[in-house]
Structures are given as structure tokens and as C-alpha cells.
Design a protein that fits this description.
single chain, 207 residues, mainly alpha, 2 domains, two-stranded antiparallel ribbon, two-stranded antiparallel sheet, 6 helices, 49% helix
């Protein structure tokens, strides 16, 4: 497999006024602009109008370049192949994200669930509670964990023990292999849930 995806096309943008205002007012509301501010804004608009000509001629006509080559062995174990791509992307997304979507109550533990008051406030005016972003972190962590396990070739080995002597002589050669079937099942269920969350919140995987 070979994948090459270029960056998103850029546009010429004049941010003279925006940089000036952010520096002057430090990101606060600037409703009472001075004459100097308005003059700078007019200059910014004039420069941007020139930039827009070049954007229309060249930059707006460019598209993101994507090239993907799939080898036949990439689909022999497609779930394992894709895990190696998805995992580092999820890790980077969690590190660089700037927002979070609404996470369903049933998808997080009780200690992270919002109250009815929190839900009503969110539906009314978009207000978020103090656990809003923690819920999204939890969902991302579960996705990451699931794909980490998929990248492991033999995670099931964690639940098999070595052969030990059996007191029951009816056992084959008086030895048996220790297994933790319940632990292995819970491990698999958590992985499956992580993949379900990945599908459910696929369209929310943005930075």
C-alpha cells in the first residue's frame, strides 16, 4: 500500500486588520473602533479584493491531490491493515483537536454523563457542562485503545497461561493449559465497542 495525500489548497488572505485588532484588543470585543482601525480595515479590504482576483485565477481552481495504491495483500487482513493507518491519526487528532461533538449519554460511564439540566441547557442555547469535553476524550481513548489492540498480532495470548501440572491424572499427560475465557471475552467486547464508536462518530473526526 502506498498513500500520498497532499495538503489542502491555500488562498491568499490579507489579515492586516485582524492581526492589528487582535494585538490591540488581545482577542476581546472591539466594538468601539478608532478612525485608525477603520482606515486599516479599508486598506485590508482593498488588498483582499486584489488577492481575490489571484484566488479566482489560480488558488480556487486547485484541489487536494490524493494518490492511493492498494496491493493485493492489503486486503488479506484489511481490518489489521487499516488499523495501522487509523491509530496514529486518532492519536494526533486527540492531541491537536480544537472542539468536541455532542456525545450520547449511553456511550460514556455514569460518572461522565450529563444531568437532565445539562442536556436541556445544551439543546436550548448550546451551553456545555464541565464534562462535555471529557466525554469526547473518553470516546477517543476507547477508539485508540481498540485500534492499538487490533495492531497487536496476538493480544489473545494475554489470556492463555503455560501448561501446569494437574492433580487429575485423567487429564492428558497430567497437564493442562490455563485460560481466562472471561477476561478474553471482556477484552474483545471492549474492542468491538471501540470500533462501534469509531463508526458512530466517524463524521465527527475533525480538528
Amino acid at each position: 500500500m502506498k498513500i500520498k495525500i497532499g495538503g489542502y489548497p491555500n488562498r491568499l488572505m490579507c489579515n492586516i486588520h485582524a492581526r492589528h485588532m487582535n494585538k490591540k484588543y488581545e482577542g476581546l470585543s472591539y466594538e468601539n473602533q478608532t478612525h485608525e482601525d477603520y482606515v486599516l480595515e479599508a486598506i485590508d479590504d482593498a488588498v483582499q479584493s486584489v488577492y481575490n482576483v489571484f484566488n479566482w485565477i489560480w488558488f480556487d481552481r486547485r484541489t487536494q491531490k490524493t494518490k492511493v495504491h492498494i496491493d493485493k495483500w492489503d486486503t488479506w487482513s484489511m481490518d489489521h491493515t487499516l488499523a495501522h493507518i487509523v491509530l496514529p491519526m486518532l492519536v494526533q487528532l486527540k492531541r491537536t483537536k480544537h472542539g468536541a461533538p455532542w456525545v450520547a449519554v449511553a456511550d460514556v460511564p455514569k460518572e461522565l454523563r450529563p444531568t437532565k439540566k445539562d442536556i436541556n441547557a445544551y439543546n436550548k442555547d448550546g451551553s456545555t457542562d464541565d464534562k462535555f469535553f471529557k466525554r469526547w476524550d473518553y470516546v477517543l481513548d476507547e477508539m485508540i485503545w481498540a485500534f492499538e489492540q487490533k495492531c497487536r498480532d496476538h493480544w489473545e495470548d494475554d489470556y492463555y497461561g503455560p501448561y501446569i501440572e494437574s492433580e487429575d491424572k485423567r487429564e492428558l499427560f497430567g497437564r493442562f493449559e490455563w485460560t481466562d475465557d472471561e477476561g478474553r471475552q471482556k477484552h474483545q467486547e471492549r474492542m468491538t465497542n471501540g470500533f462501534k464508536l469509531f463508526g458512530k462518530y466517524y463524521e465527527n473526526l475533525w480538528d
